[in-house]
């Protein structure tokens, strides 16, 4: 990480993603379904090793990981549970300039960090994780809208996901 180990953990958490079983995917699985909220939908992480489903939860946005790139057993969280289905993005509320602010969970450590998400251009979502309420103390990832093949059993992300 660049100067602050906390954010390396956040980015690693995003990269080591959790997921929802493939059966839980809905019509949103088709990819870029139009919405009044451009952040809503399926998003592939920067390293293409995790897939999030971001959707409304009340007046907020939340995100569950629905696909992971992994070999062997499904990755476990800090509490020993499957990461498959963990809601990692929570409590995102709208703030200025079409951005949303909330929290992101690192399932490997159980730590929760502050984060912002926004669509910077069509089919491109930015996620900035940070601490101490200061976005300057963070780092940004670029995610892309996902319209690839369905997620396999046990949240297995297809090898050709992009």
UniProtKB/TrEMBL annotation:
Domain spans labelled DUF2147: 41-145
Pfam family, one: DUF2147
InterPro entries xrefs: DUF2147
Domain of life: Bacteria
PROSITE patterns recorded: PROKAR_LIPOPROTEIN
Signal sequence bounds: 1-24
Keyword terms, alphabetized: Signal
This protein's name: DUF2147 domain-containing protein
Organism in which the protein naturally occurs: Gluconobacter oxydans (Gluconobacter suboxydans)
């Amino acid at each position: 990480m660049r100067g602050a180990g906390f954010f390396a953990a956040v980015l690693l958490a995003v990269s080591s993603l959790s997921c929802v079983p493939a059966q839980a995917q809905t019509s949103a699985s088709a990819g870029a379904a139009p919405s009044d909220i451009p952040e809503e939908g399926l998003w592939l992480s920067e390293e293409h090793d995790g897939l999030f489903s971001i959707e409304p939860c009340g007046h907020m946005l939340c995100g569950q990981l629905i696909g992971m790139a992994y070999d062997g057993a499904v990755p476990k969280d800090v509490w020993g549970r499957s990461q498959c289905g963990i809601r990692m993005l929570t409590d995102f509320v709208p703030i200025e300039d079409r951005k949303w602010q909330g929290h992101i969970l690192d399932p490997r450590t159980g730590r929760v960090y502050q984060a912002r998400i926004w669509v910077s251009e069509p089919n491109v979502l930015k996620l900035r994780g940070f601490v101490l309420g200061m976005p300057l103390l963070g780092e940004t990832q670029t995610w892309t809208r996902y319209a690839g093949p369905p997620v396999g059993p046990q949240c297995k992300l297809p090898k050709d996901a992009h």
